[in-house]
Amino acid sequence: MGERNGTIVAGGNGKGNRTDQLNGPRYIFVDQDQSVYVSDSDNHRVMKWVKDAKEGIVVAGGQGQGNSLRQFSSPEGIIVDQLGSVYVADAGNNRVIRWLKGAQEGTIVVGGNGEGEQPNQFNCPVYLSFDRQNNLYVVDYWNNRVQKFDVNST
User: Fold this and answer.
1) Is-contact 46 61, C-beta < 8 A?
2) Among 3, 31, 71, 128, which residue has the least CB neighbours within 10 Å?
3) CB–CB of 56/74 below 8 Å?
4) Cα distance between residue 73 and residue 53, in whole Å
């Protein structure tokens, strides 16, 4: 309370793709250890910044723009579950991908069936949230809807 100046907790070293930089940060998630996860959209990766770190760690993506399970196309919303798995709204690929802690590639959780209006398709997923029953909610921007999915987080 009463602070007038913020503290930089991620990036702050200009636009770029080094581990101490961000390029188009979109969404953040802060875990119970105060680590900050950032969807670094224009670098097509998700970075984790441990409390008081000067550099981030690539925890998902970072292999350039694309649609392989090691890549993103403009990642947006992110959320981390209690097991440390990172869920990413991969907006440009119209899918949600889960990266298990320490994994080299992700797995498609929902979507990934091309752009469209069907229940198994998205048109620019941008935000994610879980409820207490571990249902995944996805904001599907251009379809003007929010979808709920029963996702097994184990």
Assistant:
1) yes
2) 3
3) no
4) 27
The Cα–Cα gap between 24 and 5 comes to 22
Spatial strand order of the sheet with 45-49 comes to 25-30, 36-40, 45-49, 57-61
**Under 8 Å CB-to-CB from 73, ≥6 apart: which residues?**
44, 65, 66, 67, 90, 91, 92, 93
With CA atoms as reference, report the closest residue to 149 among 97, 109, 116, 98: 109
The residue type at 14: G
pTM, full prediction: 0.93
Q: Give the separation between CA 20 and CA 37, rounded to whole angstroms.
A: 13
How many Å apart are CA 37 and CA 59, to the nearest integer? 9
* Amino acid making up residue 149: F
Pair 22, 75: CB distance under 8 Å:
no
Interval 89-135: pLDDT, tens? 999 999 999 999 999 999 999 999 999 999 999 999 999 999 999 89
- Rounded to a whole number of angstroms, the distance between the first and last alpha carbons of the chain is 39
